[in-house]
Amino acid sequence: MATSPANASSADRREVAEAALEFLISEAVEWVHRSTALQQAAAAKALGDTPVQAQVPSPATPGPGSPPAGENDREGAYYKLENMGYRVGVSIVERITRDRPRFADNLDVVKFICKDFWVAIFKKQIDNLKTNHRGVYVLTDNNFRWFLRMSTEGGAAETSRQAFPYLAFPCGLIRGALANLGVASVVIAEVTNIPQCTFQIKIAKS
């Protein structure tokens, strides 16, 4: 029996369960934090500073949560995760804009990030977009998918601390996507009431 072109295309398409990506990101965050702490502890030991055991975080409990680490560990891990997200963002936007006409301006690009790009990754659009029309854009996702299974008994400060490691990768995603579209930017994120999350994009002046 012959296979129609439509069916052949469907059969050739490879799909991965959405949960697999969430588990991958969770494990990546844990691994990057542990490896960064070990590297910095080893460097400190080589310089004759604090013993390694004093700086290596204890194994984190399963599920979302920031691994216990010093400030330098956190910053180093954030940098690595953000750069991982940047590379992925560059690749994804390359694929989904292949047949798309050029964007009119930076606002048009950011709207694309809020709609097509966010849907391609998180299966939903950004819930709210605000701008001061001077190169600053604030994107709000009221139900950020990677936070839906995260919970904390602490207040706003504890919530922000636990969510912090999981914001680096999506910030990189946005920055990488914008860079591939010719827009240099700085992206930071904030969370005070999970699963809501806010991303602020500051576009560099040309």
Uncertain spans: 1-6, 51-69
Determine the mean pLDDT. 77
By DSSP, the count of extended strands is 4
Name the helix and strand elements from N-terminus to C-terminus, one letter apiece.
Answer: HHHHEEHEE
Helix content: 40-55%
Helical segment count = 5
Class computed from helices, strands and strand pairing: alpha+beta
Share of β-strand residues: 5-15%
What's the main sheet like? 4 strands, antiparallel
Shape: globular
N-to-C span: 59 Å
Radius of gyration: 19 Å
Strand order of the largest sheet: 1-2-4-3
What does this entry look like structurally?
There is one protein chain. The protein contains 5 helices and 4 strands, in the order ααααββαββ. The chain has a 4-stranded antiparallel sheet with strand order 1-2-4-3. 51% of the residues lie in helices and 11% in strands. It is globular, with a radius of gyration of 19 Å. A hairpin with a 4-residue loop joins β1 (128-131) and β2. The longest helix is centred in the N-terminal third of the chain and has 29 residues, at 18-46. It has 206 residues and is of the alpha+beta class. α2 (18-46) runs antiparallel to α3 and α3 (71-96) crosses α5.
